[in-house]
Specification:
- It is a single chain.
- Helix 6 packs antiparallel against helix 7.
- This protein has helices at 9-59, 65-80, 85-110, 112-124, 130-159, 166-176, 180-217, 232-248, 258-268, 271-275, 288-310.
- The chain is built from 11 helices and no strands.
- The protein is 74% helix and 0% strand.
- By secondary structure, it is mainly α.
Protein backbone atom coordinates (compact mmCIF):
# COMPACT_ATOMS: atom_id res chain seq x y z
CA UNK A 1 0.00 0.00 0.00
CA UNK A 2 2.89 2.33 0.78
CA UNK A 3 4.48 1.58 -2.61
CA UNK A 4 1.33 2.67 -4.48
CA UNK A 5 1.50 6.03 -2.77
CA UNK A 6 5.12 6.81 -3.67
CA UNK A 7 5.63 9.75 -6.02
CA UNK A 8 8.76 8.63 -7.87
CA UNK A 9 11.11 5.74 -8.48
CA UNK A 10 13.75 7.00 -6.05
CA UNK A 11 11.37 6.95 -3.13
CA UNK A 12 10.04 3.60 -4.26
CA UNK A 13 13.52 2.06 -4.36
CA UNK A 14 14.37 3.46 -0.92
CA UNK A 15 11.17 2.07 0.57
CA UNK A 16 11.80 -1.33 -1.03
CA UNK A 17 15.25 -1.52 0.55
CA UNK A 18 13.84 -0.65 3.96
CA UNK A 19 11.14 -3.29 3.65
CA UNK A 20 13.64 -5.91 2.51
CA UNK A 21 15.92 -5.12 5.46
CA UNK A 22 13.01 -5.36 7.90
CA UNK A 23 11.93 -8.71 6.42
CA UNK A 24 15.46 -10.08 6.60
CA UNK A 25 15.77 -8.91 10.21
CA UNK A 26 12.51 -10.64 11.14
CA UNK A 27 13.54 -13.85 9.43
CA UNK A 28 16.91 -13.79 11.12
CA UNK A 29 15.35 -13.18 14.54
CA UNK A 30 12.81 -15.96 14.01
CA UNK A 31 15.47 -18.36 12.82
CA UNK A 32 17.77 -17.54 15.74
CA UNK A 33 14.98 -18.12 18.25
CA UNK A 34 14.08 -21.43 16.60
CA UNK A 35 17.71 -22.55 16.59
CA UNK A 36 18.14 -21.60 20.24
CA UNK A 37 15.05 -23.58 21.18
CA UNK A 38 16.22 -26.57 19.18
CA UNK A 39 19.70 -26.47 20.78
CA UNK A 40 18.19 -26.24 24.26
CA UNK A 41 15.92 -29.19 23.55
CA UNK A 42 18.76 -31.28 22.15
CA UNK A 43 20.95 -30.41 25.17
CA UNK A 44 18.19 -31.42 27.60
CA UNK A 45 17.58 -34.66 25.70
CA UNK A 46 21.31 -35.42 25.70
CA UNK A 47 21.67 -34.78 29.44
CA UNK A 48 18.69 -37.00 30.23
CA UNK A 49 20.00 -39.79 28.00
CA UNK A 50 23.45 -39.70 29.64
CA UNK A 51 21.95 -39.62 33.14
CA UNK A 52 19.68 -42.58 32.41
CA UNK A 53 22.47 -44.63 30.83
CA UNK A 54 24.74 -43.92 33.83
CA UNK A 55 22.03 -44.95 36.29
CA UNK A 56 21.50 -48.16 34.35
CA UNK A 57 25.25 -48.84 34.42
CA UNK A 58 25.29 -48.38 38.21
CA UNK A 59 22.33 -50.74 38.60
CA UNK A 60 23.86 -53.32 36.24
CA UNK A 61 27.65 -52.86 36.13
CA UNK A 62 28.16 -56.22 34.37
CA UNK A 63 26.41 -54.95 31.21
CA UNK A 64 28.89 -52.80 29.21
CA UNK A 65 26.13 -51.65 26.87
CA UNK A 66 25.05 -48.85 29.20
CA UNK A 67 28.48 -47.21 29.21
CA UNK A 68 28.67 -47.73 25.43
CA UNK A 69 25.41 -45.76 25.13
CA UNK A 70 27.10 -42.88 26.95
CA UNK A 71 30.08 -43.02 24.59
CA UNK A 72 28.07 -43.22 21.33
CA UNK A 73 25.50 -40.62 22.37
CA UNK A 74 28.22 -38.12 23.30
CA UNK A 75 30.21 -38.73 20.12
CA UNK A 76 27.10 -38.30 17.96
CA UNK A 77 26.05 -35.11 19.75
CA UNK A 78 29.33 -33.31 19.23
CA UNK A 79 29.60 -34.54 15.67
CA UNK A 80 26.15 -33.05 15.00
CA UNK A 81 27.33 -29.78 16.55
CA UNK A 82 30.11 -29.59 13.97
CA UNK A 83 33.09 -30.71 16.05
CA UNK A 84 35.86 -32.42 14.14
CA UNK A 85 36.02 -36.23 14.60
CA UNK A 86 39.02 -36.16 16.96
CA UNK A 87 37.41 -33.60 19.25
CA UNK A 88 34.10 -35.49 19.27
CA UNK A 89 35.95 -38.71 20.08
CA UNK A 90 37.89 -37.06 22.91
CA UNK A 91 34.70 -35.68 24.47
CA UNK A 92 33.01 -39.08 24.16
CA UNK A 93 35.95 -40.76 25.93
CA UNK A 94 35.76 -38.17 28.68
CA UNK A 95 32.04 -38.82 29.17
CA UNK A 96 32.72 -42.57 29.26
CA UNK A 97 35.38 -42.08 31.93
CA UNK A 98 33.00 -40.08 34.10
CA UNK A 99 30.29 -42.74 33.72
CA UNK A 100 32.76 -45.46 34.75
CA UNK A 101 33.77 -43.34 37.76
CA UNK A 102 30.12 -43.07 38.82
CA UNK A 103 29.80 -46.86 38.71
CA UNK A 104 33.02 -47.35 40.67
CA UNK A 105 32.06 -44.87 43.39
CA UNK A 106 28.61 -46.43 43.76
CA UNK A 107 30.14 -49.91 44.05
CA UNK A 108 32.68 -48.71 46.60
CA UNK A 109 29.83 -47.92 48.98
CA UNK A 110 28.28 -51.39 48.77
CA UNK A 111 31.07 -53.71 47.63
CA UNK A 112 34.58 -52.20 47.66
CA UNK A 113 36.17 -55.40 46.33
CA UNK A 114 33.84 -55.41 43.32
CA UNK A 115 34.56 -51.71 42.79
CA UNK A 116 38.29 -52.42 42.62
CA UNK A 117 37.80 -55.31 40.21
CA UNK A 118 35.61 -53.18 37.95
CA UNK A 119 38.07 -50.28 38.07
CA UNK A 120 41.07 -52.49 37.24
CA UNK A 121 39.21 -54.06 34.32
CA UNK A 122 38.25 -50.73 32.76
CA UNK A 123 41.72 -49.30 33.38
CA UNK A 124 43.35 -52.27 31.63
CA UNK A 125 41.03 -51.74 28.67
CA UNK A 126 42.05 -48.08 28.52
CA UNK A 127 38.48 -46.85 29.04
CA UNK A 128 39.18 -44.49 31.96
CA UNK A 129 41.19 -41.26 31.68
CA UNK A 130 44.27 -41.17 33.89
CA UNK A 131 43.09 -38.21 35.99
CA UNK A 132 39.70 -39.82 36.60
CA UNK A 133 41.41 -43.13 37.37
CA UNK A 134 43.68 -41.49 39.97
CA UNK A 135 40.72 -39.93 41.78
CA UNK A 136 38.70 -43.15 41.80
CA UNK A 137 41.67 -45.22 42.97
CA UNK A 138 41.92 -43.02 46.05
CA UNK A 139 38.20 -43.37 46.79
CA UNK A 140 38.26 -47.13 46.32
CA UNK A 141 41.34 -47.49 48.49
CA UNK A 142 39.63 -45.67 51.34
CA UNK A 143 36.48 -47.77 50.92
CA UNK A 144 38.45 -51.03 50.93
CA UNK A 145 40.45 -49.96 53.96
CA UNK A 146 37.24 -49.12 55.81
CA UNK A 147 35.61 -52.42 54.83
CA UNK A 148 38.66 -54.50 55.81
CA UNK A 149 39.12 -52.72 59.15
CA UNK A 150 35.44 -53.24 60.02
CA UNK A 151 35.69 -56.94 59.16
CA UNK A 152 38.91 -57.30 61.16
CA UNK A 153 37.36 -55.57 64.16
CA UNK A 154 34.31 -57.83 64.13
CA UNK A 155 36.50 -60.94 63.86
CA UNK A 156 38.79 -59.84 66.69
CA UNK A 157 35.92 -58.95 69.03
CA UNK A 158 34.39 -62.36 68.30
CA UNK A 159 37.71 -64.01 69.17
CA UNK A 160 38.32 -61.91 72.31
CA UNK A 161 34.95 -60.68 73.64
CA UNK A 162 34.29 -58.67 76.75
CA UNK A 163 35.89 -55.60 78.33
CA UNK A 164 38.44 -57.72 80.15
CA UNK A 165 40.10 -58.66 76.83
CA UNK A 166 40.78 -55.11 75.61
CA UNK A 167 44.56 -55.54 75.75
CA UNK A 168 44.39 -58.90 73.95
CA UNK A 169 42.35 -57.39 71.15
CA UNK A 170 44.87 -54.65 70.49
CA UNK A 171 47.80 -57.04 70.76
CA UNK A 172 46.27 -59.47 68.31
CA UNK A 173 45.50 -56.72 65.79
CA UNK A 174 49.05 -55.39 65.95
CA UNK A 175 50.65 -58.79 65.38
CA UNK A 176 48.25 -60.50 62.98
CA UNK A 177 47.67 -57.83 60.29
CA UNK A 178 50.55 -57.42 57.85
CA UNK A 179 49.41 -54.35 55.92
CA UNK A 180 50.44 -51.19 57.80
CA UNK A 181 47.45 -49.04 56.81
CA UNK A 182 44.95 -51.83 57.40
CA UNK A 183 46.53 -52.61 60.78
CA UNK A 184 46.47 -48.96 61.89
CA UNK A 185 42.85 -48.53 60.77
CA UNK A 186 41.83 -51.70 62.61
CA UNK A 187 43.62 -50.70 65.82
CA UNK A 188 41.96 -47.28 65.68
CA UNK A 189 38.55 -48.86 65.19
CA UNK A 190 39.10 -51.31 68.08
CA UNK A 191 40.16 -48.47 70.39
CA UNK A 192 37.04 -46.49 69.51
CA UNK A 193 34.78 -49.48 70.13
CA UNK A 194 36.50 -50.30 73.43
CA UNK A 195 36.03 -46.69 74.52
CA UNK A 196 32.33 -46.83 73.68
CA UNK A 197 32.02 -50.07 75.66
CA UNK A 198 33.80 -48.52 78.64
CA UNK A 199 31.52 -45.47 78.62
CA UNK A 200 28.43 -47.68 78.48
CA UNK A 201 29.83 -49.89 81.25
CA UNK A 202 30.62 -46.89 83.46
CA UNK A 203 27.13 -45.48 83.02
CA UNK A 204 25.53 -48.82 83.86
CA UNK A 205 27.87 -49.32 86.81
CA UNK A 206 27.09 -45.90 88.29
CA UNK A 207 23.39 -46.58 87.96
CA UNK A 208 23.70 -49.95 89.70
CA UNK A 209 25.82 -48.45 92.47
CA UNK A 210 23.37 -45.60 93.08
CA UNK A 211 20.39 -47.96 93.18
CA UNK A 212 22.22 -50.26 95.58
CA UNK A 213 23.00 -47.40 97.97
CA UNK A 214 19.38 -46.27 97.84
CA UNK A 215 18.23 -49.82 98.52
CA UNK A 216 20.55 -50.13 101.51
CA UNK A 217 19.28 -46.80 102.80
CA UNK A 218 15.75 -48.19 102.63
CA UNK A 219 16.76 -51.26 104.60
CA UNK A 220 17.43 -53.71 101.76
CA UNK A 221 19.97 -56.48 102.39
CA UNK A 222 23.02 -56.40 100.03
CA UNK A 223 22.86 -60.21 99.84
CA UNK A 224 19.54 -59.85 98.02
CA UNK A 225 21.06 -57.52 95.39
CA UNK A 226 22.89 -58.27 92.15
CA UNK A 227 26.20 -56.51 92.65
CA UNK A 228 28.14 -58.47 90.00
CA UNK A 229 28.56 -55.41 87.77
CA UNK A 230 30.26 -53.38 90.51
CA UNK A 231 33.94 -53.17 91.35
CA UNK A 232 35.18 -54.86 94.55
CA UNK A 233 35.54 -51.42 96.15
CA UNK A 234 31.97 -50.49 95.29
CA UNK A 235 30.66 -53.81 96.59
CA UNK A 236 32.55 -53.28 99.83
CA UNK A 237 31.11 -49.76 100.15
CA UNK A 238 27.60 -51.16 99.76
CA UNK A 239 28.22 -53.66 102.55
CA UNK A 240 29.69 -50.94 104.79
CA UNK A 241 26.67 -48.74 104.16
CA UNK A 242 24.36 -51.62 105.06
CA UNK A 243 26.25 -52.25 108.30
CA UNK A 244 26.17 -48.55 109.16
CA UNK A 245 22.45 -48.57 108.52
CA UNK A 246 21.98 -51.53 110.85
CA UNK A 247 24.02 -49.87 113.55
CA UNK A 248 22.20 -46.59 113.03
CA UNK A 249 18.85 -48.32 113.30
CA UNK A 250 19.70 -49.55 116.79
CA UNK A 251 17.20 -48.14 119.30
CA UNK A 252 14.50 -47.52 116.65
CA UNK A 253 11.29 -49.44 116.40
CA UNK A 254 10.49 -51.83 113.59
CA UNK A 255 7.09 -50.20 113.19
CA UNK A 256 5.54 -46.84 114.04
CA UNK A 257 3.42 -46.98 117.21
CA UNK A 258 0.09 -45.17 116.60
CA UNK A 259 0.04 -43.57 120.06
CA UNK A 260 3.50 -42.08 119.55
CA UNK A 261 2.58 -40.75 116.09
CA UNK A 262 -0.61 -39.16 117.48
CA UNK A 263 1.36 -37.40 120.25
CA UNK A 264 3.89 -36.01 117.81
CA UNK A 265 1.26 -34.82 115.30
CA UNK A 266 -0.64 -33.14 118.12
CA UNK A 267 2.54 -31.28 119.18
CA UNK A 268 3.26 -30.29 115.56
CA UNK A 269 -0.03 -28.39 115.39
CA UNK A 270 1.66 -25.77 117.58
CA UNK A 271 5.12 -24.81 116.35
CA UNK A 272 6.01 -23.28 119.70
CA UNK A 273 5.19 -26.52 121.47
CA UNK A 274 6.94 -28.74 118.94
CA UNK A 275 10.18 -26.77 119.27
CA UNK A 276 10.42 -28.05 122.85
CA UNK A 277 8.84 -31.45 122.24
CA UNK A 278 10.97 -34.38 123.61
CA UNK A 279 11.12 -36.23 120.28
CA UNK A 280 14.06 -38.38 121.39
CA UNK A 281 11.86 -40.06 124.01
CA UNK A 282 9.77 -41.56 121.18
CA UNK A 283 12.72 -42.98 119.22
CA UNK A 284 12.06 -46.62 120.16
CA UNK A 285 8.41 -46.27 119.12
CA UNK A 286 9.19 -45.06 115.58
CA UNK A 287 11.02 -46.41 112.56
CA UNK A 288 14.16 -44.58 111.72
CA UNK A 289 12.60 -43.12 108.55
CA UNK A 290 9.65 -41.66 110.44
CA UNK A 291 11.83 -40.37 113.25
CA UNK A 292 14.23 -38.69 110.80
CA UNK A 293 11.31 -36.96 109.09
CA UNK A 294 10.01 -35.45 112.32
CA UNK A 295 13.52 -34.53 113.41
CA UNK A 296 14.16 -32.71 110.13
CA UNK A 297 10.93 -30.74 110.51
CA UNK A 298 11.85 -29.66 114.05
CA UNK A 299 15.39 -28.77 112.96
CA UNK A 300 13.96 -26.42 110.34
CA UNK A 301 11.86 -24.69 113.00
CA UNK A 302 14.90 -24.22 115.25
CA UNK A 303 17.00 -22.99 112.32
CA UNK A 304 14.29 -20.47 111.56
CA UNK A 305 14.49 -19.24 115.16
CA UNK A 306 18.25 -18.85 114.97
CA UNK A 307 17.94 -16.81 111.77
CA UNK A 308 15.28 -14.60 113.30
CA UNK A 309 17.47 -13.97 116.35
CA UNK A 310 20.42 -13.15 114.09
CA UNK A 311 18.23 -10.68 112.18
CA UNK A 312 17.16 -9.04 115.45
CA UNK A 313 13.50 -9.90 115.00
CA UNK A 314 13.13 -11.90 118.23
CA UNK A 315 14.93 -12.20 121.53
CA UNK A 316 13.48 -15.46 122.69
CA UNK A 317 11.07 -18.20 121.75
CA UNK A 318 8.12 -16.32 123.22
CA UNK A 319 7.82 -14.16 120.11
CA UNK A 320 5.82 -16.03 117.52
CA UNK A 321 7.04 -13.76 114.71
CA UNK A 322 9.60 -16.46 113.88
CA UNK A 323 6.74 -18.79 113.05
CA UNK A 324 5.46 -16.57 110.23
Amino acid sequence: ELLTKTTNNTVRRTLNRALDARTAQFQTSTGTHFNDQRKAYRKTTYDQTIAEATENAIADPDDPGHIEDVFKTTQRRYSDLGYDPKAALSLAEEARSKAHASVILALSESNPAQAKAYMDKQASAGKIDLDVLAATRKKVKVAILRSDSIRNTEDIFAKFPGPENAAKRLGYARTSIANDEERDATVKRIRARDYEMKIAQDIAQKGTYARALTGVGNGQNPDDMDLSGLTPIQQNNIKKAAQARIEGDAGFGKNDQPAAVDSIISAMSNSEEFRLFPLEDYKSQLTRKTYDGYKLYRSKLLAKDQQAIADGKIYGLGNTEADK
